[in-house]
Amino acid sequence: MPNQPAPNLLSWASEIDEGAIAQAARTARLPFVSGHVALMPDAHVGIGATVGSVIPTENAIIPAAVGVDIGCGMVATETTLTASDLPETLAALMPMVEHRIPAGVGKGHDDPSVDRTLGDLGLPCTDLTPKQTRKVADQFGTLGSGNHFVEVCLDERDRVWTVLHSGSRGIGNQLATMHIVNAKKLMKKQEIGLEDPDLAYLVQSTPEFTAYIEDMLWAQRYAMASRARMDKVLVNALFRVAGKGQRVRTINCHHNFTQQETHYGRSLWITRKGAIKADTGDEGVIPGSMGTRSYIVRGRGNPESYNSCSHGAGRRMSRTKARRELSATSLSQAMRGRTWNADRAAALVDEHPDAYKPIDQVMADQTDLVEVRHTLRQIFNYKG
User: Nearest-CA neighbor of 36 among 45, 46, 48, 27?
Assistant: First the structure.
């Protein structure tokens, strides 16, 4: 159940630092915020707006609240495979995934088969340069870096699932950054003072607002289609290793996005920055950190959260602090019994499970937001 740590702010987080509360309170004080800001159990400090926040606005949008990874989200596929269908080790899957799903900053691939899919997406409002157009194609169906990952998991029935986390890659970042910069310039030009410059906003019906919305919606489509492509590649690779298998169902959901919805009788822009839509019956994917559990959930449609829930475990340490205080050795211990990028342990310390909130506590904090349908335990992890 939520508490109210500051005016116009509701929080479902049992563990949250004062900086995140102060940051969310600044957002809640904006004059076009219509209703309270909702903090999910995984909430932590972000840039401008708090990661794990749901922001209801009327006739305006904050581009930095959506963030630079527009449309970032999760895709999970349930298969007909069970644990007994898998080989003794999934080591053979790692090079297949590494080759077919490029990962890392700026990484791409040259695959002409993406052209048809990209053609179906249309074009953003902003005219792309030739270099950006190449980036759109090269990075489509690639993982990215940071906390983006590929997993193979088993649920409580020993049924095999694939889980993947990624977003709109470099082009989403570039489009978002351009609109954030433009919003800040507008604030300065109009002499609008803000408690945080990253809360710069665009007003509905202006050309700048319209251009942002069109670019954002395109980037969301790009991110979702890119995840779907990687999911197909991943599942096919898994079936090749197992020697058989079929899909049962796939769940593909954003957690960095905004859209118009009706709440409390008003048409609002609901921005979910690190939160997923959890209306009654909505299926979602909530991942834990490396080596911990992930969850397949069904939304309860809680109006106080604007029909939302957490998008993951949520960081409790910055990446810098994690690299300073945690070790590759303890990460390797946490990942025992799993197939993972063990040769890159030193580079992955900032993704150590101890750098995140306990996912079980996050889930306990939001029993009024979602119903757990399946609990997944990782047996394979490939990190960007």
Answer: 27
